[in-house]
Design goal:
Helix content is 31%, strand content 25%. The strands form two sheets. Strands 1, 2, 3, 4, 5, 6, 9 and 10 form an eight-stranded mixed β-sheet that branches. A two-stranded antiparallel ribbon has the order 7-8. The longest helix is centred in the last third of the chain and has 23 residues. It contains seven helices and ten strands. It has a single domain, classed as Ribonuclease E inhibitor RraA/RraA-like (Glucose Oxidase, domain 1, 3-Layer(bba) Sandwich). It starts with 13 loop residues before the first helix and ends in a 10-residue tail after the last helix. By secondary structure, the protein is α/β, with parallel strands linked by helices. Helix 2 crosses helix 6. A hairpin with a 2-residue loop joins strand 7 and strand 8.
């Protein structure tokens, strides 16, 4: 088989994927140092959609989906197809037929820096898809690409086996090696944010750090406060 297709890579263990699914993409992005969030152009087709799993990367030429078909045939249950479609919106790279195959195979979702179609049918399927818009044009199936290699998707480097968490806010990708260490930080952040929201609801709306930050930024002089 061509070196353009890499079959073997380590995936995030299923137990860690299950734990990560408890968290919003925003929480994981924050504890990951505000890194790993794909460009906001890649968004859920419907806000309720959420996908969590391990990345299977696909690199295609604009408007051609040959390698996506190959990736679907190779994918394992729990994988999320992450496709660098070069931010092209002139033709859809996937539609109902391919999404139905993904769902049938247990693929956890699709993230694509490109367009899809049949969006109402995908909505009815309730299959999680995150894309850069839609277009009724169909794709070609002529141009080779790569599967399993690192890609750039939405401005973020994605490797096969990395963790993907996608929800109404967007898509976050976390390096496989970092997932286990970040989960306790995510749990702590959820608790801390809940406590802060409870304080705000009791009337404590002031941010304790704000005056110091404004002084550091030169907005307030030393000794001044809002």
């Amino acid at each position: 088989m061509s070196n353009d297709i890499l079959r073997d890579f380590d995936r995030v263990p299923a137990a860690l994927v299950k734990q990560a699914a408890e968290f919003q993409a925003a929480i994981l992005a924050d504890v990951n140092g505000r890194r790993g969030a794909l460009h906001g152009r890649i968004a859920a087709l419907r806000p309720r959609m959420k996908a969590v799993g391990t990345a299977l990367t696909v690199d295609v030429r604009p408007g051609d989906n040959l390698m996506i078909h190959a990736a679907i045939a190779m994918a394992k249950p729990g994988d999320v197809l992450v496709i660098d479609g070069k931010a092209d919106q002139t033709a859809a790279l996937m539609g109902t037929i391919m999404m139905t195959a993904c769902q049938q195979l247990g693929i956890a979702g699709v993230v694509i820096d490109g367009a899809v179609r049949d969006t109402l049918e995908i909505d009815e399927m309730d299959f999680p898809v995150f894309a850069f818009g839609s277009n009724p044009n169909g794709p070609t199936k002529n141009v080779p690409g790569r599967i399993g290699h690192p890609i750039a998707c939405g401005g973020v480097t994605v490797r096969s086996g990395d963790l993907v968490v996608a929800d109404a806010d967007g898509v976050v990708v976390i390096e496989r090696e970092r997932v286990e260490s970040l989960l306790p930080l995510a749990r702590k952040k959820v608790v801390d944010e809940a406590a802060r929201i409870a304080e705000i609801k009791k009337g404590n709306t002031s941010a304790s750090w704000l005056d110091a930050a404004l002084r550091t930024a030169g907005v307030l002089k030393q000794g001044e406060s809002l």
